[in-house]
């Protein structure tokens, strides 16, 4: 909601307000929050807390096809149902999980999963869970597993938590991207990623993430060797270009940092990029705050 920020010259400024609404002047709070530490150092942050929900229910839904899973997610949102989490897990990720945790029983015919959390008042959670089950079954869900307490939820969420460590059993190196596309283009970007992967058959690719907001974590895994690394970097570049082509962003969560600075111009037009650099030069003329981050030149 508000920040206390130390600028590069040592002066201290305050942005935002403690009120629930404020549109006075420029929104400096969002500017600094999105600056990846390149504009100032935060010394105080004011946040708004949300109360814990009365009830949480988790559903793990098994599908035979990616299309059925994506279609289900789209219809859930279209029907004005807003789960607090809706995770998509593709076949490659499922295979990794099965190799990493033998006890996780996922039928061979399952090619996609949705992991869905619903929270709120007990009556509303019950009603929403029922509607979501109806939607996924209409979209050919093979099975719906439900968890109604913390212990059962932890068991279902372990499927999602196991993915990242499991990927290292497939290959020793990986590049993890966090693209985000309009929800209506999720299936298209997954198809494009599959087509790109066909040109690099020696690599392994796993896609999972927050399908409720269109945020997909694309993991490109490769073995030791300069050629494998080059192939992985080329594939990532193609994925990022295709993401922007379908109206998406090259980073939904992780930011630009050092690694993605070379790709910033894929998404940000020259004039807007120059404005960003002007702001950086104004607030940090000597370039001492997170030097090299965000802008490659």
User: Termini distance?
Assistant: 32 Å
Query: Remind me, CATH topology of the largest domain?
Result: Alpha-Beta Plaits
Helical element count?
10
Number of E strands: 10
Structural commentary:
With 297 residues, the protein is an alpha+beta fold. 38% of the residues lie in helices and 23% in strands. The protein has helices at 28-33, 66-78, 91-100, 122-138, 150-161, 163-167, 186-198, 226-245, 264-267, 270-283; strands spanning 2-6, 12-16, 41-46, 55-63, 85-90, 112-120, 143-147, 173-180, 204-210, 215-222. A seven-stranded antiparallel sheet has the order 7-4-6-5-9-10-8, sandwiched between helices. A three-stranded antiparallel sheet has the order 2-1-3, with no helix packed on it. The chain starts with a strand and ends in a 14-residue tail after the last helix.
């Amino acid at each position: 909601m508000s920040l206390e920020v130390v600028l590069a010259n040592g002066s201290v400024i305050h942005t935002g307000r403690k009120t629930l609404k404020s549109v006075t002047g420029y929104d400096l709070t969002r500017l600094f929050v999105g600056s990846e530490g390149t504009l100032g150092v935060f010394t105080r942050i004011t946040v708004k807390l949300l109360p814990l929900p009365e009830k949480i229910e988790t559903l793990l839904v098994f599908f035979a096809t990616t299309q059925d899973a994506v279609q289900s997610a789209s219809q859930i949102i279209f029907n004005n149902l807003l789960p607090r989490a809706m995770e998509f897990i593709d076949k490659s990720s499922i295979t990794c999980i099965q190799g990493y945790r033998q006890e996780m029983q996922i039928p061979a015919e399952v090619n996609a999963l949705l992991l869905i959390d619903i929270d709120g008042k007990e009556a509303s959670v019950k009603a929403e869970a029922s509607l979501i089950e109806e939607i996924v079954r209409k979209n050919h869900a093979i099975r719906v597993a439900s968890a109604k307490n913390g212990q059962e939820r932890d068991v279902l969420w372990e499927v999602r938590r196991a993915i990242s460590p499991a990927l290292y059993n497939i290959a020793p190196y990986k590049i993890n991207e966090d693209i985000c596309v309009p929800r209506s283009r999720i299936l298209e970007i997954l198809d494009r990623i599959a087509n790109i992967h066909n040109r690099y058959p020696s690599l392994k690719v796993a896609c999972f993430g927050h399908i409720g907001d269109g945020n997909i974590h694309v993991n490109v895994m490769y073995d030791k060797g300069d050629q494998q690394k080059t192939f992985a970097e080329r594939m990532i570049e193609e994925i990022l270009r295709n993401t922007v082509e379908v109206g998406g962003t090259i980073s939904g969560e992780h930011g630009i940092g050092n690694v993605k600075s070379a790709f910033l111009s894929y998404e940000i037009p020259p004039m807007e990029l120059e404005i960003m650099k002007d702001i950086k030069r104004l607030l940090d003329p000597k370039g001492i705050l997170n030097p090299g981050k965000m802008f490659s030149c």
